[in-house]
Amino acid sequence: xxxxxxxxxxxxxxxxxxxxxxxxxxxxxxxxxxxxxxxxxxxxxxxxxxxxxxxxxxxxxxxxxxxxxxxxxxxxxxxxxxxxxxxxxxxxxxxxxxxxxxxxxxxxxxxxxxxxxxxxxxxxxxxxxxxxxxxxxxxxxxxxxxxxxxxxxxxxxxxxxxxxxxx
Length: 167
Known about the structure:
Elements: H1 2-23, H2 28-45, H3 54-73, H4 93-111, H5 115-126, H6 131-138, H7 142-163
Helix pairs in contact: 1-2, 1-3, 2-3, 4-7, 5-7, 6-7
């Protein structure tokens, strides 16, 4: 019976990891591959993983696998513009167009940042996680999260200005 409960618990955690990857706009097939790799590695190393850190370990393994595959095959694209544009039907077409253009420029600037900075910004501002939640997820101290998010925002601002020639 204990093995069945562990199996159900692992499936539950893997579903959470999959949904997290999809929220990052990682394509379905890539997210499935990353979750499968995380499950495989979990089965190899389950004895050495702390029970309280299973989810963060699985997410880290899945993300690392995804990033490695992207580097290996040169297909990195987080599709950063999806979900950034929220349109009110009452808005004027010019306003909608300008907002969409600004979001595309922001997405381009964001894609030029280091992967670590992109991940932190998306976790904080797109997924709305707290510093503490990000800290637990990435296994990094809260002060380090705050420092790196500050740097990421500054780099995003600088890159955005460079991309748009607003020096």
